[in-house]
Design brief:
Blueprint lengths: L5 E3 L5 H4 L6 H6 L1 H14 L15 H17 L2 E5 L6 H10 L9 H4 L3 E5 L4 H10 L5 E7 L5 H17 L8 E6 L4 H9 L2 E5 L12 H9 L4 H14 L9 H14 L4 E6 L5 H15 L1 E3 L5 E4 L2 E4 L10 H6 L4 E8 L16 H4 L6 H18 L4 E6 L4 H21 L8 H13 L6 H9 L10
Parallel strand pairs: 2-3, 2-4, 4-5, 5-6, 7-10, 7-11, 11-12
Antiparallel strand pairs: 1-12, 8-9
Helix pairs in contact: 3-12, 3-17, 4-10, 5-10, 5-13, 11-17, 12-17, 13-17, 18-19
Bound molecules: 5-phosphoarabinonic acid.
5-phosphoarabinonic acid binds next to loops.
């Protein structure tokens, strides 16, 4: 099957942005990096931490059981709450935001045809209190999602909800909590067994930020009525197409090489700018994928490289009135990736009016669809004129198939560029350090050494606090 996404990289090239761009010769001269990255991914599909490449093909049974559970939740519950963080929440927010009504929770029940959805990815006490003010726990299904089964944020949310359901309300937790976690390791799988919770497994070889197409994401999507088979079909198209080693026919490989060469030229910031509110959370998901995968202190040979490209979210047209001034005239340190949509699912006309004000009236008779599209084209033009590297990925429309393509596309881009940078794309030692320091600050057993290290760390000085 052919990829429906279109990748346009004209404005990355020196033909369009002069010496700030990349030449055809540079692509040819560096093709060895692309070939090596492609070979690595091909040879390791489904192995080690590349389990995610097989998710579109090996989940037939699990999809059936997810759809069954999702139907039960859809019929029996008013609210569905995701408790998770990082890769255990961002996929759900990205896909649900893309594929359900933007004001889903505010629609009357008969129009929404799915529970209200809450994705709680923080431990801000005000947020937890606010959630509990607007949901009736007796009419709520909570999906606790943690691959490791031990993340402090998610486990503390679990403790609060368990206590509320069981001790305070006397409810049977089995009817209100679904666990999604690793089959063997961590605390949640043990708790789930003991409490008899419906449990879905995060497959081996699928890390948090690559988990949006496994039960971590699939259950929340299905609860919201999203066609998860179509989503996986879209992802499968990308998996199939990326077997192609020809960089001119494999857009994920081309984008990875262009970003790799851009980093070498000092473009250390990657802006993702969807021109569609429905895709704005895809940019948040991308920020985690790109940031956590590529930001590494050492390379695979042990050299200190401090690699990475800082991901930034922007939304068109909103950020034209915020960040685009910087993108057009500030430092030449960014690559902007626009995500465009050809056909919006709604058409909104701008009616006639204000005939005596030509500088407003020119909009009349047009549509918001035209306005958002022309503004994207205009911003692309302005950036290119100012010699700013940019590229555009176009979806013919936002639907489960194209969203599946988009997610899988960026996972492949990340895998390719990680190999080009010669780093470990799949670990997160920088995150672990913070997690361990939190355990030490709480006096958790086994972290005494870390607690000592923290105690001996240089203390802040009053002279620098005003
Ligand atoms: O990508 C990752 O591995 C992380 O961002 C995790 O998703 C995040 O730390 C949450 O981990 P867990 O699912 O184990 O609770």
């Amino acid at each position: 099957m052919k990829l429906s996404l279109r990748f346009d990289y004209n404005n990355m090239m020196s033909d369009f942005i002069g010496d700030k761009g990349i030449t055809d010769k540079e692509i040819v001269d560096n093709i060895k990096y692309a070939r090596k990255a492609h070979r690595f991914v091909e040879e390791n599909r489904g192995k080690g931490w590349l389990g995610w490449t097989e998710l579109p093909f090996n989940q037939e049974k699990i999809v059936e059981s997810i759809n069954e559970t999702a139907n039960l939740v859809r019929q029996g519950y008013e609210n569905f709450v995701v408790l998770g963080i990082g890769g255990s929440a961002l996929g759900a927010r990205a896909v649900i935001n893309a594929l359900t009504d933007l004001h889903h929770n505010l629609l009357p029940q008969e129009e929404r045809k799915a529970p209200r959805i809450f994705i709680e990815d923080n431990v801000d006490p005000e947020r937890m209190a606010a959630l509990l003010r607007v949901i009736d726990p007796a009419k709520t299904m909570f999906n606790v999602i943690t691959k490791s089964g031990s993340t402090s944020e998610t486990m503390s949310q679990y403790l609060i909800i368990y206590d509320l359901l069981k001790n305070k309300l006397g409810l049977d937790v089995k009817n209100h909590i679904i666990a999604t976690t690793d089959a063997a390791t961590g605390n949640l799988i043990r708790i789930a067994g003991k409490e008899g919770l419906i449990t879905f497994v995060v497959p081996d070889g699928v890390g948090g930020r690559f988990s949006c197409l496994c039960p971590v994401g699939l259950l929340p999507y299905a609860v919201m009525g999203i066609d998860i088979e179509a989503l996986l079909d879209g992802a499968a198209t990308v998996c199939d197409l990326t077997h192609n080693e020809n960089i001119y026919e494999n857009p994920a490989l081309m984008l990875a090489l262009l970003q790799f060469l851009s980093i070498k030229k000092g473009k250390n910031i990657s802006v993702m700018m969807p021109y569609a509110d429905s895709l704005s959370s895809i940019a948040d998901w991308y920020c985690q994928l790109w940031g956590e995968s590529l930001g590494k202190a050492v390379d695979n040979d042990g050299n200190v490289v401090n690699a990475g490209q800082t991901p930034v979210k922007a939304v068109g047209v909103t950020d034209q009135h915020s960040q685009v001034q910087l993108y057009t005239e500030g430092p030449f340190d960014k690559v902007i990736t626009f995500i465009g949509v050809e056909k919006f699912r709604e058409t909104v006309e701008i009616p006639e009016g204000l005939e005596d004000m030509p500088n407003v009236h020119f909009l009349c008779g047009h549509t918001l669809n035209e306005l958002i599209t022309k503004e994207r084209m205009a911003t692309e033009y302005a950036l290119t004129k100012a010699k700013r590297a940019n590229n555009t990925i176009t979806l013919y429309e936002v639907n489960p198939f194209t969203v599946g393509e988009l997610l899988q596309f960026f996972e492949f881009v990340t895998a390719y560029i990680g190999d080009m940078l010669n780093i470990n794309t799949y670990n997160q030692p920088g995150v672990e350090e913070g997690k361990n320091a939190t355990y030490a600050l709480f006096g958790r057993g086994g972290y005494e050494e870390k607690a000592e290290e923290l105690k001996n760390a240089k203390q802040k000085e009053d002279k620098y606090i005003i």
